[in-house]
Amino acid sequence: RRFLSVVQLNPFPAELVKTLLNEPSSVKVDEVVRYEAGYVVCAVIAGLYLLVVPIAGLCFCCCRCRRRCGGRVKTEHKALACERGTLMAFLLLTTLVLLTGVVCAFVTNQHMHEQVDPSVEAVPEILLSLRGLVSDVPQELQAVAQQFSLPQKRVLEDLDGVGMSIGSTIHTRLRSTVYEVLASVSNLGQALQVSVDHLQALNSTLVELRKGQQDLEPAVREHRERLLALLQEPGCQGCTEAQSRAGALELGADFQKVSPVDDVLHRLRGVPEANFSSMVQEENSTFNALPILAALQTASVVKELKKVVAQRPEGLTTLAEEFPGWEAASRWSRALEEVEERSRPYLKEVQRYEKYRWILGCVLCSAVLLVVVCNLLGLNLGIWGLSAREDPSHSEAKGEAGARFLLIGAGFSFLFAAPLILLVFATFLVGGNVQTLVCQSWESKELYKFADTPGNLPPSMNLSQLLGLKKNISILLAYQQCREGAALWSVLQLNDSYDLEEHLNISQYTAKLQQELQNLKVDMKNLDLLSPAAHRDLEALQSSGIEKIHYSSFLVQIQKPVVNTNMEKLAQELEELARTQGSSVLGQQLQEEAQGLRNLYQERVLPQQSLVVSLEAQEQGSESSLSPFAQVETSGVLDKVTYLKGELPTWATSILRNESECFLTREVGYFSQYVAWVREEVTQRIATCQPLSAALDNGRVVLCDMMADPWNAFWFCLAWCTFFLIPSIIFAVKTSKYFHPIWKRLRLGPYR
Fold first, then answer.
1. Which of 303, 668, 318, 307 shows the shortest CA–CA distance to 506?
2. Nearest-CA neighbor of 92 among 326, 369, 303, 375?
3. Where are the transmembrane segments (predicted)?
4. Three-class SS string for 339-373?
């Protein structure tokens, strides 16, 4: 990379790439040459190498044929050992450098070969991930729109019980009032029944008392008159005290003075006409069945409401279709799929040509390795030959063999120099430009900045126009946001191109729901509270005048005795007087009067007293069955029933409206939660573009790290070996002279 930074000193050629993308025909060659100046210099060097080294090799072959190159040392001198050692050291060092280079070349060539298959296989995966990103956006939007069925299902479930719920609420709110009125009606009906029964019994007893009084009064009067006549006779002895008691023998209680109840009973004739107990029980049952009644009455409206809820708002229906890039997404998806299909044959070709490149690289690396082996063998044999040269019986075969190996290595160097330099320059030109033009600018984000500059890219490559956006977006900023996991909504700034709130506006949908809810009605006409017969009974009670009965007049007469004088005591006194009288006739008469009083008492007074006792009990029962304010209570109950019958429908309607509004608020809340969820999903979660940044990063890794880096390492190592072949040739040829027998020694050898 440092070498490439020296070769390519120019910055990223923004203007040249802009012209190449927009107007390829107007690209000037001199601009390209100016940018590629470093590569041109390298090309000149490679050309010179390609020209000079083969020519030098050809000349060397010619010289060798004439025995002018690679000959022997003519004479032995003092500096011979030093020269030979120096050349051998330099040759060994050069060979070691070549060995290191060829080992690195082998390794990088193999690494490059191993990276091709994963890189080629990664290309369809990257395209597939991009296609998945493009195709998943519409699918995710459609999935979000289809989730509208969840609040729909919840609302439909609530609608199944809305009638019963509203009826239960109306029943709960009104039951205290209705139960109170029905309890008042029931109590008043029971009191009415008891009062009528008591009044009838009271009136019957009063009639009997009056009749008994009429029968008793003459009899008492006759007995009083007869007793007074007997007791006032001159012959009556000790009759003065009895005479005063007999004078008091008269009726005490006068039931003719008691207030009559006939008029009240006349007005209450046929009352009670209604059975208040069963009526109240029936009204209670009707009122308690209000939830079921409400469910039945609202069934048709609930059915229409379900039809409204089952519909889908138009904005949600077109949420995905009108999303920016919807059409472009399908085009891109098809285009990526087509690119993926078309790239497979080319990728297979890449693998095939890579195999050829790998074989060629192995062959050329083997050639360099062959040169290294020849040099090492030549040095070893040459040194062995030199060490044995002092032995008279030793031949010069080892030195000669070493020299030949060195010359063979030089020959191989001349032979493979041309293909080596050609392979080096071809791979260097491709890999170097990929590294300096693409990888460096990609890693430094210059490519993104270039794409963000207006006018650099042709309209056909403008991302904003391809996506149908109204505002240009920064590719660099979009890439950075995508790496952080941002959604396409914020990355593409879709709020300027797509009115999400318009698609999430469900006001028309909820307005239809509200309009249908206003049709909910609960009719309470079956709840009468008071039947017509019961109403007539209470009106009769109200106008009967029962509160005007003077029960005090009853008490006054009841407290009086039926007869003022104690008739039994008077009869006993008369019997005693009868025994003390001197006249038997008078005594007999007094005895008869005493017996008559006893008979009157037993036959007339005692039954009358029993009726008085019954009258007292009936008066108390009648007075306690209805309060003195019965008329006021009856009027209050009638007024309350009339008021409630008029107000109950209004109250029920008011409660129905409140419950409908609460129901609407709750159901709209479900849809509002869904809308908020959709808004969050679309703007923050759906279509995260992290796969896009990952695809770009993976593409850079595949191209630069997995392909370009081993590619450049391979040509660099191979170039290293190629250029070190020159000193290897020079040192090998120079050193080979010292491994041959010295001419002077060969001529003088036999004489010694």
1. 668
2. 375
3. 37-65, 86-108, 358-384, 405-430, 713-733
4. HHHHHHHHHHHHHHHHHHHHHHHHHHHHHHHHHHH
Residue 619 has pLDDT above 70, yes or no: no
Question: What pTM does this model have?
Answer: 0.61
Three-state DSSP class for 581?
coil
**Angle at CA of residue 131, ends 129 and 135, nearest 5°:** 120
Residue 43 CA: distances (Å) to CA of 7, 21, 29, 36:
11, 26, 16, 10
Enclosing domain of residue 298: 185-310+524-634
Same domain, 190 and 294: yes
Cβ 159 vs Cβ 306: under 8 Å: yes
Q: Based on the structure, what is the number of domains in the chain?
A: 2
In tens, the pLDDT along 221-255 reads 887 777 777 777 776 777 777 777 777 777 777 77
CA of 559: how far to CAs of 204, 251, 537, 612, in Å? 19, 13, 34, 9
Same domain, 355 and 448: yes
Q: Provide the 10 A C-beta neighbour count for residue 87.
A: 19
Q: Which residue would you say has higher pLDDT here, 679 or 314?
A: 679
Mean pLDDT of 61-77: 61
Do 99 and 220 reside in the same domain of the chain? no
Helix, strand or coil for residue 561? coil
Beta bridge partners of 487: 688
Locate 332 and state its tokens. Answer: 């891109």
User: Quick one: pLDDT at residue 112?
Assistant: 82
Q: Is it the case that residue 74 has pLDDT exceeding 60?
A: no
Residue 578, token pair as written in the block: 């009868």
For residues 548 and 628, is the Cβ–Cβ distance under 8 A?
no
